[in-house]
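User: Show me a protein chain along with its predicted structure.
Assistant: Here is one chain, sequence first, then structure tokens.
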Amino acid sequence: MTAARSNSLSASSKDALFLVNPIACATHMLLLGVLATASGLAQAQVTAPIPSPASSSAVRPFDIPAGPLASGITRFAAAAGVAISFDASQLRDLQSSGVKGSYSVDQGFAQLLRGSGWEARHQGNGNYTLGRLPSSAPQSTDSVSTLPAVLVTAPLQSPSDLPKPYSGGQVARGGSVGILGNKDFMDTPFSVVSYTAQTIEDQQARTLADVADNNPAFRFIYPDNDVSTDFTARGNKVKSLDVAYGGLYGLTSPGVEALERIEVITGANALLNGLGPIGGVGGSINMVPKRALSTPLTRVATGFVSDSQLGVHADISRRFGEDNRWGVRFNGAYSDGKTAIDGQSKKVTMGALALDYSGDKVRLSADLGYRQNDAKSPSRTAYLTAGFAIPKPPSSGKSWQQRWSYENTEGLMGALRGEVDITPDVTAFAALGASRLRMEELFANSILYEANGNLLQRQVYWPVYRDSSTAETGIRGRLVTESVTHNWVASTSGLWVKNGIALNNLASTYTNIYSPVFIDQPSISGLADASNIPKTGATTASGIAIADTLSMMDDRLQVTLGLRHQRVKSENFNGTTGATTSTYNKSVTTPGLGVLFKVAPNVALYANYIEGLQQGPVGAAGASNAGQIFAPYVSKQHEAGIKVDFGGFATTLSIYQLKTPNGFTNPATLIYGINGEQRTRGVELNTFGEVARGVRLLGGVAFVSAKQTKTANGTNDGKQVTGAPKVQLNLGGEWDLEQVPGLTLSARAIHTSNQYMDLANLQSIPSWTRYDAGVRYRTKLGAVPTTLRFNIQNLTNKSYWAAAVDGYLIQSSPRTFRLSATFDF
């Protein structure tokens, strides 16, 4: 045992030294460069101020529909964040073709006013006035009169308005920060990134994990068989149940095909988002559904994924009614075929319908979603017993899963949301949703017990259900007192979840990960099935929150204060008798504080402190007590950082400390439980945008120190938390070839350092690095805009253990080809 451990650790250490040191050195140099440049830019403000976001020279995307010219000017000024004076009566009979595309403010006004005989004149104070072009001015001086001034300003932004894409289009300028609404990333005292639909489409993402591959703080820790999976972030778990849809927890997602944004907050965020079904504190993910666009869209995409999966996706958007106030958008997709993993196939059917209404004072939306996923021989975990060196994984694409195993899921969801402007500065809002999930699993629970790859497989048949309902209501507004602007909010929320599982345990057999032994499918006749699933758990989570962001010194200093009172009531039931086996009912009031100070218009320092009540860990899938809910826990996070917006390229550098419970599955008993606490400290760097014309970077690096504390008898105090790599690097780049208009090349590297498998740090898996590559070409076939995309994941077809957490191993995915053609009719 000692020799095996020594050899394993030695190889891991050499690999780590070979790969991590260059990465650490390069990152260190990059951090110094960011800080030095930020310092230089801050000093440069004294003599050469950098334009603010509302500058007439800053280029940004606009989407102003065709219509009356006066209305178009009002909308454009609001979108640009500027004020313009004009007499609307002079423009009564004039129309505009709108503005769509990326322009500076001056260019946008010129496009909007083209052919009207009017021009926007930039005043010295940063505002605009409307005047006639010289050739259109009246010839007689007697007819000249002074126009009565009408001041048009940007209204209070609705929380439903999405922040505009940042330079390069891969991420947005900001996103939802929970109860604080949508905020620009430079005005947010937290680490936030919002990935756009453009990124989802260009990377041909099929699941949430594909998008999370762009974020250095996140690593998936459960096989990615469908739309969502489990992650770690900052050394802590973020379960799939804690992923919100449209800002609401507990709703099943119809799929990434229906998403406009994927918003990520790294770190604890209980004040902002409340308590999810599980309550992970490492980070939060919010999936933003697509809404109808201002211009009609009929998009059809056909795709191929290796080994032989074929699919089609339709995206249709229309607006109608007076001023196009009503909108409808439909997304539907179907795919079927074999994957690149031996013996595995998937069939997916999804549909999502989004309706919305945008009035002068009322905004409403509705979402309906359905998803069915049938996976044959899906990827699974391998639990590990103690006392031997972890063997290498089998060759890439090889699977030891029984060919008859399957996982069939069906999800249905619906949500309604509404906002009413009580006054120009006060808005009331409410939302409610419900979802229904049914899952049926027949598979072999694998336990790796020897270094030669021998496996014990316990056949199980587990029908599962989960019914959820959720609601939120509140009021937000803006109040100006002296030199301080208050953006305040008060809200209440509730989440009700009922779940059940029939734990049918069948026979046990033996096999090997390198030479699998395939057996006949076991009989499930007479067992509790999907129509007769006992209730095993029920959880109610409710909360009341208040927050206020105080903006001072011309918004240079912003202080966010808030409190959230949360209550968690949970019960576990005996699946056979229905008797209550455990229960708890606990509440706590937790504070939150965020401070942001702009030392320059493009440089912001921030810090935050948040406490959160998280529901206790839940027995991991595959554990003998899977689904058991443990007592709640109060977590504490301290974070500080700096954000720099270089105009087309942005960075966020943060440091943090986070304390949470340490959950682990005993490999001998397969019982999941709590063993002490974990203290996680780390440094993160996130980057996005265009570093040069046509060259984009997306990703960053995370350094994590996750240590165990307060373990039983202090046995494992100071040892590394399982599944918490010390270094995580994700860096992707895109390059538009000027020589071939429309052609873009892309590449990405993902590196993860070694991870410990057990609490005692005696077993570990080595570091790994994955390379991805792609190419796309935008052109026209006849009059039809067409985009061809080809991406390769795991370019070198490397096989490795991707994660070691909760007592089990995750194998990497093999080299996978993705080819698609998208047509906009």
